[in-house]
């Protein structure tokens, strides 16, 4: 067992809270740093119920140099997993400066503080959005990169900043992890995705329809060139994703260098297949209607996950049945999320 201490920015959020569970279970000590702009500290109380350990928590902003400096002075941090950021694509189009300030500016501040503290091990949350509209699927890491909105551009910029930093200071160890579509919840049903307002993403929308908070799903487009006309994505169980971070961390702490890998399953499902699988899981059909395409969407997106398998010895284990069952357990047990 290891006792390395890991600073988890954005650790109270959806992926961060699940990763805290995986870190604790793997013997690491997470220290969570989060301003709670899109989450609740209740998630960390739930992490404690699952693991028996409550992560140390600092409620502060990654752009707050003094607070960050203080965390590095107070804790002997071995590595940073950097989840903190804003992630709503539509909002990023409305408020680009807010996204660049928070995501890009915040990351630069974090890197400067790490540099001063001589902590040079970083795992960064990137996204399949950096592939833009891919020419083909499955998507490999060496595909061309592009972005179609400020959110995606902020991820691309950060990837490039990290590349520049590594070239200038090759003693840094950096993992750029490109997530596909994270879904599901911890099997306990105690932690899960808790979006504010009406969900933008498919899976929380489906579960909120199922629990009666929303009336029916709108399927964005029935005329995509896909298996059934609806969009196809690579939905990865959030605990698989969390375990992918532990695998990346082990690799990073053992071996010098920078690496960039997809974290996906390699399997695509359409919106209609997701609706059907979820309906089967809960034993009733979900109401939906097919409407116009959502601007900015793409037809298909799924990963070639072999680089992560070969480099990290990690691959996603949980299938669609588990995803649906776990998402439903969380939604049913917490119909109003953490805010209830
Ligand atoms: P989330 O919103 O649940 O978690 C992000 C956390 O960061 C929140 O707890 C929020 O309060 C915190 N945060 C935001 N700005 C901050 C700041 N300036 N200072 C301190 N804390 C701040 O989102 P998530 O789904 O858990 O995503 C985590 C990361 O993964 C994000 O960087 C996101 O862009 C990336 N990502 C997410 C997805 C997805 O679909 N969920 C896909 C690819 C990449
Ligand atoms: C999935 C599919 C929709 C909602 C987004 C970001 C991406 C990444 C993950 C962070 C698509 C369809 C959705 C609905 C629908 N995030 N859909 N009705 O768009 O693949 O990716 O989240 O990095 O950057 O763009 O995910 O869950 O929004 O959509 O029909 O109400 O479901 O059109 O085909 P997406 P999503």
TrEMBL record:
Keywords annotated in UniProt: Carbohydrate metabolism, Isomerase, NAD
Catalytic activity: UDP-alpha-D-glucose = UDP-alpha-D-galactose
One Gene Ontology term of the molecular function aspect: UDP-glucose 4-epimerase activity
Pathway assigned to this chain's UniProt record: Carbohydrate metabolism; galactose metabolism
One GO BP annotation of this record: galactose metabolic process
CDD domains to which the protein is assigned, alphabetical: UDP_G4E_1_SDR_e
Record domain NAD(P)-binding: where: 7-326
Recorded GO CC terms: cytosol
Class in the EC hierarchy, top level: isomerase
Keyword flag NAD: yes
EC number: 5.1.3.2
Cofactor(s) demanded: NAD(+)
Keyword Magnesium set for record: no
UniProt cross-references to NCBIfam families, sorted A to Z: galE, PRK10675.1
Subunit structure of this chain's protein: Homodimer.
Family label: Belongs to the NAD(P)-dependent epimerase/dehydratase family.
Protein name: UDP-glucose 4-epimerase
Annotated organism of origin: Thiomonas bhubaneswarensis
């Amino acid at each position: 067992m290891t006792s390395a201490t890991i600073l988890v920015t954005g650790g109270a959020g959806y992926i961060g809270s699940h990763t805290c569970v995986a870190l604790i279970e793997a013997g690491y000590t997470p220290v969570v740093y989060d301003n709670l702009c899109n989450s609740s500290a209740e998630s960390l109380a739930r992490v404690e119920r699952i693991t028996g350990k409550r992560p140390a928590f600092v409620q502060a902003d990654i752009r707050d140099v003094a607070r960050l400096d203080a965390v590095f002075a107070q804790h002997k941090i071995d590595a940073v997993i950097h989840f903190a950021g804003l992630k709503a694509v539509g909002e990023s189009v409305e408020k680009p400066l807010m996204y660049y300030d928070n995501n890009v500016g915040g990351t630069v501040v974090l890197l400067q503080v790490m540099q001063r503290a001589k902590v040079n091990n970083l795992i960064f949350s990137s996204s399949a959005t950096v592939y833009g509209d891919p020419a083909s699927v499955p998507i490999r890491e060496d595909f061309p990169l592009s972005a179609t909105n400020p959110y995606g551009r902020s991820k691309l910029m950060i990837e490039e900043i990290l590349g520049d930093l590594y070239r200038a200071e090759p003693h840094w160890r950096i993992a750029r992890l490109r997530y596909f579509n994270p879904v599901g919840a911890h099997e306990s049903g105690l932690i899960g995705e808790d979006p504010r307002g009406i969900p933008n993403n498919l899976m929380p929308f489906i579960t909120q329809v199922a629990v009666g908070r929303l009336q029916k799903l709108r399927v964005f487009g029935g005329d995509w060139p896909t298996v059934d006309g609806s969009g196809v994505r690579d939905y990865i169980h959030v605990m698989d994703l969390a375990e992918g971070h532990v695998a990346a961390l082990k690799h990073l702490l053992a071996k010098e260098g920078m690496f960039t890998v997809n974290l996906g399953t390699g399997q695509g499902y359409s919106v209609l297949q997701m609706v059907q699988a979820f309906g089967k899981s809960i034993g009733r059909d979900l109401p939906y209607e097919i409407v116009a395409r959502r601007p900015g969407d793409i037809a298909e997106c799924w990963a070639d996950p072999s680089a992560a398998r070969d480099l990290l010895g990690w691959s996603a284990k949980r299938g669609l049945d588990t995803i649906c069952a776990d998402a439903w357990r969380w939604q049913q047990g917490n119909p109003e999320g953490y805010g209830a």
